[in-house]
Amino acid sequence: MESTPTVEIEQRGEIGILTLQRPRALNALDLEMVEVLAAALERWERDDSIRAVVLRGGGDRGFCAGGDVRGLYETLIGDHPEQVEAFFRAEYALNARIAEYRHPIVAFADGITMGGGIGLAGHASHRIVTERSMLAMPETRIGFTPDVGGSWLLGRAPGRVGEYLALTGNTVGPADAIAVGLADHHVPSVRLEGLLSALEDGADLDSAIQAVATEPAPGTLTGEREWIDVAFAQPTVAEIVEALRGRPENAARATAAHLGTLPPTALAVTLEAVRRARKLPDLRATLAQEYGLVLWFGTTQPDLVEGIRAQLVDKDRSPRWNPAPGQELPADLLDQAYGFTPPTPLWG
């Protein structure tokens, strides 16, 4: 199997290895990478000589920082909705394939793993984090909403941690990632190559992971669950912020201030997305819901382009949200967002 400039494809014994090789961009995914990963997985799924696949990132900074948001920006300002649709259809099909794969998939979520990186690692059968892992779904910060099955994963986090992480876009380390259901095992980064070698030598997958896994350093979310669960159970974003402001914890009040800087549209739609995903039957249904939302954002809402501009293009960190924080949203906003019909169904 041949490699490409951005994805290294190799087979060592009974182990297939896919390495994202775009380290200068923190292995951000573009359409070509998604298609290469999907094609490799499709071939290996029919191959009885493969017993597991390892998915990892090249470089030493991260597994995958997400989708190629700069590329998305150029597509959006160039008014190419068909290209936006093509990317998300391919990416979501890849997310579903990983979740439903015939062979075990071992994801090394070492370092930065965000957005589209969660879509790759979060649905694998064996999800490994290291002491360097930083996981997040930070989409609200660019006027967007968690996708790639992120609302499915966060909707199944304990208590109201899912709403907290989805709305704030905050980053979690290895212990918290395991606690909230985004990862399964902590393996020190220096042991990853040894784990891969053991698998190549025929070691049992679960036994090999257990042999190198360790307890991560304590996280912070466990100690903050009380105020998170109380505040983020409120019906609306405005009531969540009010509850946070009334808490005695400094972290709660800081969270309220942070939410006050984020786009009201993205916050309202995201809160609803996590709560709807909690009731959906499976990942595919959730991806279909997210697909409609991302196309609604991309084709009807100005905040997504503005958020990318402010954070990644001009880097002035001064987005002009519309509506601005503190302004009222249209009464039918959620009806608009969840009633949007994509030109082509995701699974059609």
Sheet with most strands: strand arrangement: 1-2-3-5-7-9
Can you summarize the main beta sheet?
Answer: 6 strands, mixed
Q: Tally the helices.
A: 16
* CATH-derived topology of the largest domain: 2-enoyl-CoA Hydratase, Chain A, domain 1
Number of beta strands = 9
CATH architecture of the largest domain: Alpha-Beta Complex
The chain-level structural class is: alpha/beta
At the fourth level of CATH, the homologous superfamily of the largest domain is: 2-enoyl-CoA Hydratase, Chain A, domain 1
Assembly of the depicted chains: single chain
Q: What is the averaged pLDDT score?
A: 96
Number of domains: 2
Outline: globular
Topology pattern, helix = H, strand = E: EEHEEHHEEHEEHHHEHHHHHHHHH
Instruction: Give the termini distance in whole angstroms.
Output: 30 Å
User: How big a fraction of the residues is strand?
Assistant: 5-15%
Classify the helix fraction into a percent range: 40-55%
User: What CATH first level of the largest domain would be assigned?
Assistant: Alpha Beta
Low-confidence segments, given as residue ranges, are none
- Overall radius of gyration: 20 Å
Summarize this structure briefly:
This protein has about 350 residues and is an alpha/beta fold. Helix content is about 50%, strand content about 10%. It is built from 16 helices and 9 strands.
